[in-house]
Amino acid sequence: MKSSIQIILGDRAKAHIANKGLQPEDICAIPAAAGGPKGLILQGLDQYLFNDWLGESHLRTRAEKGIKPLQLIGASIGAWRMAAAASSNPAATLKRLAQQYVETQDYSKGVDRHEISRVCHAMVQAVVSEEAQHMVQPAGKELLVWVNKGLTPLHHAQQLRARKRGFASAVLANSVNRNKLSTYFERWVFQSPGAHTDWLKQPFDRIPTHIEDLDALNIHDALLASGSIPFVLNPVYKIAQALHEDHPEVKYHEGPFWDGGLTDYHLALPYHRLDGLVLYPHFAPTVTPGWLDKFLKVRKAKPEWMSNVILVCPSPEFVKRLPAKKIPDRGDFKRYNFDHRIRIPIWQAAIRESERMADDFQQWLNNVNR
Q1: 157, pLDDT greater than 50
Q2: CB atoms within 10 A of CB 222
Q3: Which of 58, 110, 152, 226 has an alpha carbon 20 to 30 Å from 277's alpha carbon atom?
Q4: Is pTM, for the whole model, over 0.90?
Q5: Whole-angstrom Cα distance, residue 79 to residue 327?
Q6: Residue 256: CB atoms within 10 Å
Q7: N-terminal to C-terminal alpha carbon distance within the chain
Q8: Contacts of 252 (CB under 8 A, 6+ apart)
Q9: Tens-place pLDDT, residues 15-27
């Protein structure tokens, strides 16, 4: 039987593995893309990575050797996955996230964005639960949550019709040049305090980037904003600023804040600036810069930025063997006519099948380290 995974190596990663194999200490960052239900197919791989290969034993070794913390970088559902991975018990929290995502979205036909926002609010709360402080300052890890702030005409467009015109204008501008999104959005990265994010502070496109601290007070809203798809959910209108000893008063960053994937759908970032290798569990073999670039097939991540990336994704053969012969996606709600007795078992089966990806990744590691 053919492998369930496909592994795509950047030139720098390929050379490193050919000469030295691959050890957990070689990995400096793990990105996690936006994509809604598509992230479910990575559950098995996430469980193996954060509970075994990059688990507690590795994190102790990392600290003993003075290696920088492992950066967990996420947008939208990817941010939720990475927050779960940053918890004190990744196995349980990742499982809880998947269960919540599959089972609580039992929408009826005609569901509106207010109801979806309510469900997602509760879903994030269930995942964060008592883990907020662990997620903000995880041992041996750093969490980076991607969010977008809407600018004029999105910032002041309180009327739905006006906001639709603003987003339509953004779509048109992006089709001409991705950098034109700087008129519509600011990229906000909410990070673990003290995170090593110098590699993001030097501009890499014209979209303004703001880096702010996470804390237990704002992580829920940062995660909710990261997954707030325009017109599917409501925006998050304000996010608390992290509290500091010298500034104990609660203040707020004013929004509206939207889905982190709008500007950075698959997180096509300048990873080549990092010293180590980047392990990227992904649901697709290509990395698309922004959500609006899905419709522009020629717009992909810059190869030089991906030189140190190890991308692990489902193989075409594996996808064909899934119950629905495809990865779960947001279209399934309508595809199955909002009949959750059909959708839920299919999504649950895809999660069970994803364990094969973990098995095959372990086999690949054994082979490259012989």
Answers
A1: no
A2: 29
A3: 226
A4: yes
A5: 19
A6: 22
A7: 22
A8: 238, 239, 240, 241
A9: 999 999 999 999 9
Residue type, 89: N
What is the model's pLDDT at position 355? Answer: 97
**Nearest residue to 365 via CA among 64, 49, 55:** 49
Distance CA 298, CA 17 (A): 29
Model confidence pLDDT, tens digit, residues 79-134: 999 999 999 999 999 999 999 999 999 999 999 999 999 999 999 999 998 899 99
Percent of the residues in the chain that have a pLDDT greater than 70, as a whole number = 98
Query: Residue 8 belongs to what H/E stretch?
Result: strand 5-9
Length of the chain: 370
User: Distance between alpha carbon 251 and the CA centroid of its chain, in Å?
Assistant: 27
* Tokens linked to 153: 């005409």
What tens digit of pLDDT does each residue of 213-272 get?
Answer: 999 999 999 999 999 998 899 999 999 999 877 777 889 999 899 999 999 999 999 999
Please name which of 87, 164, 160, 98 lies closest in space to residue 128, comparing C-alpha atoms: 87
Written as one letter, the residue type at 49 is L
DSSP string, 256-267: EEEETHHHHSS-
Alpha helices in the chain (DSSP H): 11-20, 43-48, 56-64, 77-85, 90-103, 113-128, 132-136, 160-176, 198-201, 219-226, 261-264, 316-321, 332-335, 340-353, 355-368
pLDDT at 186: 95
DSSP label of 242: P
